[in-house]
Amino acid sequence: MKIVIMPGDGIGPEVTHEAVRVIEALGLGIDMKQAAVGGAAYKAYGHPLPPETLAIAEAADGILFGAVGDPDCDTLERHLRPEQAILGLRKALTLFANLRPAKVFKGLEDHSALRPEVASAIDLLIVRELNGDVYFGEKGYRTAADGTREGYDVMSYCESEVRRIAHVAFRAAQGRKGRLCSVDKANVLETSQLWRDVVVEIHKEYPDVQLSHMYVDNAAMQLVRNPGQFDVIVTGNLFGDILSDQASMCVGSIGMLASASLGERKTAHGTYGLYEPIHGSAPDIAGQGLANPMATILSAAMLLRHSLGQAAAADRIEAAVGKALEDGVLGRDLGGRAGTTEIGDAVLARL
Amino acid sequence: MKIVIMPGDGIGPEVTHEAVRVIEALGLGIDMKQAAVGGAAYKAYGHPLPPETLAIAEAADGILFGAVGDPDCDTLERHLRPEQAILGLRKALTLFANLRPAKVFKGLEDHSALRPEVASAIDLLIVRELNGDVYFGEKGYRTAADGTREGYDVMSYCESEVRRIAHVAFRAAQGRKGRLCSVDKANVLETSQLWRDVVVEIHKEYPDVQLSHMYVDNAAMQLVRNPGQFDVIVTGNLFGDILSDQASMCVGSIGMLASASLGERKTAHGTYGLYEPIHGSAPDIAGQGLANPMATILSAAMLLRHSLGQAAAADRIEAAVGKALEDGVLGRDLGGRAGTTEIGDAVLARL
Ligand SMILES: CC(C)[C@H](C(=O)O)[C@@H](O)C(=O)O
Ligand SMILES: CC(C)[C@H](C(=O)O)[C@@H](O)C(=O)O
Where do the annotations place substrate binding (chains A, B) (predicted)? Predict the structure, then answer.
């Protein structure tokens, strides 16, 4: 079992460090390599996703990713910015399905800005497409009709892209409450109309799943009004970026949420994937030992479960995190005072 | 003073009917014409925005718009769908600035899904660009590299489009708390990078305004976590569609919120504009006298204020709506039992 750790920028190194300690403590003999990404890789090697990093990733069974994003790099040319590391990994490794479960943790019902009765009803999974949409279309600058400079980005989805993510979403719904809501903007976008047509088509293969469609503006409203109504949501890369962050915040503890990005490649005991906390690099608190590593530790658990087939070890980690929370070990994001190492120690002690 | 009423579809006719009664009761001698839009216009004249409707609109000082959207029309070709009426009016009349204030109404703090202390801090204005972005770029179908069908839509903004909306937003911030947050996705989109560069440029003309930038995914989180942090938000057409609906729902009373769409054309006493409630056509409750007409009545007040220079009359309407609320006249959207006509009567009685 081989995994690669990509600490990245900001709080990335601190939080992945704690996750590595947890994985090591399990004594599973997992081979762990480190690889540079993001602003850190740019500063060391001149590129946010060096070829060596990609090669190490390809030789492994899964990736534990910290975070990328560094204000120092905001004025670089686009292809050299830290964000290109995560976008490049998703594309190069065909990790097209981003799974983001959102559910209120026991004992944390009061941490959401939503009323406790609204927040505690949340138990949803967002399936976000990661390899297409306006993220990867042709983009650039040109001269507009009125002679001024114009920035443009082409949004698109083709049938095969929608089909493969729809299958992932329908299967996920089968394993949950059997309800799938596809979110688009078909009243304005042809990209969305094609998306909707293909989802309707694939639905025929999953008659046991109840399918509905919602416009993205309405979905953003419903995620505030009554997020408990959703089971699985499937949507494109751009709408998924917005809605999954919104949903995470509804849960009230963004420092707690993990995510998996999967493709079709199999490993010896599961599916190849990239796992990352959904919080960003938080440069303002980086290097101070203040960040909550729980989301990264939970991402490591997802990696063990989905890419290495180590379900029992994943259960142990998740239980230890749950116990630490119950015992009041709360990071600053949750109004507590526990620092990065202290939280790591607390989880280790409860493994 | 000439205005045109466009009832449209679903609950549109019911709610505009109440607003017309309120305007008439003011005795200002305003000339009101009706014009067909949306699915209703398609059914009667074969087009969602008939040329006669556009001509009547052009000859008036402002438009009071109900809602468009009719499930019967969902399978029509895109250019014949009800939504094209509102998109067509915005574009043909160069109504490029959509202003959506969101603030909790006194006495309605408990109607938001957000905690009362979070909801009651909301006092923001979203300035959404309406004439550009992926809404109006080239769109269609083509064959993808893998031979399957692909839907595409081109997103773009040129400098002149961003400049004019930035001026509107900076001026709005000057008239409020002096803080402007520009929302984009500049870490991925060139359209956003150009947007950001132009906003930074225009900022030089407004040194008294404090400008910040936020990625759209973060903005969707912050609107849940702490919406009270915002004063004015300026953003493009697509992100504005999503975030303004989300913000409205944070307020907890989407049946109460009005919006104005303005351009540069002046009327005798103000600016030409289109005014509409932000709720949609709600086909499920249409024709039953259940819809809350308050958002449309408040839209009429905005029309009087901004397009007709009738500030005193607008104040009277807003005060009457406030009073009706205080007296417990609540529509079903607010957990009350008052119907459409009853709410209209209650506002009329308090004018
Ligand atoms: C860093 C950025 C490019 C990325 C995205 O937009 O996909 C991030 O927001 C995410 O959701 O993983
Ligand atoms: C009806 C639809 C085309 C429209 C939009 O997306 O602009 C609506 O959602 C709005 O916000 O006014």
Answer: 90, 100, 128, 217
Question: How high is the pLDDT of residue A254?
Answer: 82
- Number of domains, chain A: 2
Inter-chain contact A154–B155, Cβ cutoff 8 Å?
yes
If we measure between CA atoms, which residue out of A193, A347, A2 comes closest to residue B83?
A193
Asked whether the beta carbons of residue A242 and residue B242 sit closer than 8 angstroms, the reply is yes
Pair A299, A225 in one domain: no
| Residue in A9, A65, A87, A135 to alter for ligand 1 test, most ligand atoms within 8 A of Cβ | A87
CA B90 to ligand 2: nearest atom: 7
Active site residue A141: no
Asked if residues A351 and A25 have their Cβ atoms less than 8 Å apart, the reply is yes
pLDDT at A96: 98
Same-domain check for residues B201 and B120: yes
For residue B252, pLDDT beyond 90: no
Q: Do A245 and A117 share a structural domain?
A: yes
What is this structure's pTM? 0.95
Claim to verify: residue A240 and residue A168 sit in the same structural domain: yes
Q: Would you state the pLDDT for residue A251?
A: 87
Q: Which ligand is nearest to the CA of A276?
A: 1
- Element (DSSP H or E) covering residue A157: strand A149-158
Q: Ligand 1, atom 2: nearest CA belongs to which residue?
A: A83
Q: What angle, rounded to 10 degrees, do the helices at B311-326 and B340-349 form?
A: 120
- Among the candidates A202, A234, A252, a domain finishes at A252
Q: What is the CATH number of the domain that holds A79?
A: 3.40.718.10
Residue nearest to atom 10 of ligand 1 (CA): A241
Q: How confident is the model at residue B316 (pLDDT cuts 50, 70, 90)?
A: very high
Residue B108 in this model has a pLDDT that exceeds 90: no
Q: What is the mean pLDDT of each run of 10 residues along chain A (351 residues)?
A: 97 98 97 97 97 97 96 91 96 97 87 92 96 97 95 98 98 97 96 98 98 97 96 98 94 88 95 95 95 97 97 97 94 93 98 94
A220 and A192 housed in the same domain: yes
Lowest-confidence region among A24-38, B246-260, B279-293? B246-260
- Residue B142, token pair as written in the block: 């083509």
What DSSP string runs through A269-316? Answer: TEEEEEEEESS---GGGTTTT-S--HHHHHHHHHHHHHTT--HHHHHH
Ligand 2: residue of B9, B68, B86 to mutate (most ligand atoms within 8 A of CB) is: B86
Is B135 a residue whose pLDDT tops 90?
yes
B180 and B84 fall within a common domain: no
Domain range for B316 is: 1-100+256-351
Q: Determine contact, residues A36/A4, Cβ cutoff 8 Å.
A: no
- Interface membership of A96 toward B (CB under 8 Å): no
Dist CA B313 CA B300 (whole Å):
10
For residue A188 and ligand 2, the question of a CB distance below 6 A is answered with yes
For the CA of A237, the nearest atom of ligand 1: 7
Question: Is A241 a known active-site residue?
Answer: yes
Our answer on whether the CB atom of A318 is closer than 6 Å to any ligand 1 atom is no
Do B283 and B335 lie in a common domain?
yes
pLDDT at A266: 96
Last residue within a domain, chosen from B212, B233, B252: B252
**Catalytic residue status for A217:** yes
The residue among B141, B54, B64 whose CA lies nearest residue B91 is: B54
- How far does B186 lie from chain A, in Å, by closest CA? 10
Question: Annotated binding residues of B for substrate, as ranges?
Answer: 90, 100, 128, 217
In-domain check, residue A102: no
Whether B90 has a pLDDT exceeding 90, the answer reads yes
If you count residue pairs, one on A and one on B, with CB atoms under 8 Å apart, how many are there? 193
φ, ψ of residue B317 in degrees (nearest 5): -65, -45
- Per DSSP, the residues of B315-334 read HHHHHHHHHHHHTT--BGGG
Q: Is residue A197 part of a domain?
A: yes
Does residue A135 have an active-site annotation?
Answer: yes
